[in-house]
Specification:
mainly alpha; 5 helices; about 70% helix
Length: about 140
């Protein structure tokens, strides 16, 4: 498993770093990626490791745990969600301009102000956009 940020292999590791690697090994053991002997051998080596390089070698052949992968993907997902919400509002604004333009032209051609009918479809559309911001299907 590639441990999170790039760092010098000869830099000394902390107890928290060793605990994180031990947790990764527990996850790999629980997933059936390591047998009992291999898990115990690597776990013993975790507590005697002094540097990041030694810790990285213990997990280099294992995939990144799903939980860590999800955490690293979270900021990108948030940016994508915000971008999608802004795109929905831009589309709403474009629809508002068109509908209000149609209402304005029809009011001018009749010589009097018509009922402001764009309020109904634009209001419903705005409620849908707001609801989609709170009830996103991808959130778990």
């Amino acid at each position: 498993m590639a441990n999170v940020p790039a760092r010098p292999d000869d830099q000394r590791a902390s107890d928290a770093d060793r605990e994180a690697v031990a947790e990764d090994l527990r996850d790999a053991f629980g997933e059936g990626r390591l047998d009992v002997d291999e898990y115990q051998r690597r776990l013993d080596a975790v507590w005697t490791s002094a540097t990041y390089g030694e810790l990285d070698r213990l997990t280099s052949d294992l995939p990144i745990p799903a939980e860590r992968h999800e955490k690293s993907a979270a900021p990108e997902k948030r940016r994508n969600d915000v971008r999608a919400l802004l795109d929905m509002w831009k589309t709403w604004l474009g629809g508002a301009v068109v509908m209000i333009g149609i209402w304005g032209i029809s009011s001018l051609s009749s010589g009097e102000l018509q009922d402001f009918w764009p309020a109904i479809p634009l209001g419903i559309w705005a409620i849908v956009v707001i609801a989609s911001a709170f009830w996103n299907d991808d959130k778990s």
